[in-house]
Design brief:
With 118 residues, this protein is of the alpha/beta class. It has helices at 2-6, 18-33, 52-62, 100-108, and strands at 43-47, 68-72, 83-90, 112-117. It has a 4-stranded parallel sheet with strand order 2-1-3-4. Helix 3 links the parallel strand 1 (43-47) and strand 2. The two termini are 13 Å apart.
């Protein structure tokens, strides 16, 4: 149902909090991207506009998987092939923004976009 609603090819609907759902999505996307025979992509970008508790859970859950978490501004981040996925909130913590351009940059870099939404 979530995949149909968002138009995304893959979706998860955690029964836990948003932070745990984001960490589950990070691990799932990391596995998908790194399954192909290319250089491992071990960076995960998460927007500073995500809720602090979401960022903290992602940072904690990334450590045992050797995923480097980059927390930054989605309007200025530059992507390369070392990123496996990118996460942001809709609506954002501070305002609502159209993130279609951001998602296109993510996909053009060969990564997966993760959206936390209600």
């Amino acid at each position: 149902m979530v995949a149909d609603f968002t138009g995304m090819p893959v979706a998860n609907a955690s029964l836990l909090d948003e932070g745990t759902a984001a960490a589950e999505a990070m691990a799932m996307a990391y596995g998908i991207v790194n399954k192909s025979p290319k250089l491992p992509a071990n960076k995960f970008f998460i927007s500073t506009r995500c809720y602090r508790q979401t960022i903290d859970v992602v940072l904690t859950r990334a450590t045992p998987h050797n995923i480097e978490v980059v927390v930054g501004n989605p309007d200025t981040v530059e992507f390369d092939k070392s990123y496996s996925e990118h996460s942001f909130n809709i609506p954002e913590r501070t305002a609502h923004a159209d993130r279609r351009g951001f998602v296109k940059k993510v996909h053009d870099a060969g990564a997966i976009a993760i959206v936390a939404t209600d």
